[in-house]
Fold:
Amino acid sequence: MGELTALAEEKRVDILCIQEHHIYHENVHIQMKDMGKGWVLAMSSGTKNTVNSTVGGVGILMSPFAYKSLEYREKASPRILLAKFSGNPTPTVITCYSPTNCSPDNEAVNFYSLLSDVIKKTLSTTLRLSVGT
Structure:
């Protein structure tokens, strides 16, 4: 992660989405990890599979500038994380990790259904904020 943060800083990337980080943290909705120099990683936990290996997990790496403008973050599932930043209009970032082709069909259907709901909810909220209602 340190190398990724250094590269984002060098290339002036303020927000970087990460899929399948393989980090597990118990009983924490969204873990905020200090990456140094003001960089912060917001991440959902990966999950444990049948052989107790950690799989999945998504995150959003934010520069000091982006982190200062973070207004809201939400974990829709271990595979979907969103963040809203101050601005006009309000920028929203959604990072996700879809089930692989080895996953059961119902897992993929549930994932895409939830992702669709998150996007619809985000669009309706963004439109209301833009119009001022």
Q: What stands out?
A: The two ends are 41 Å apart (CA to CA). The chain has one domain: 2-131.
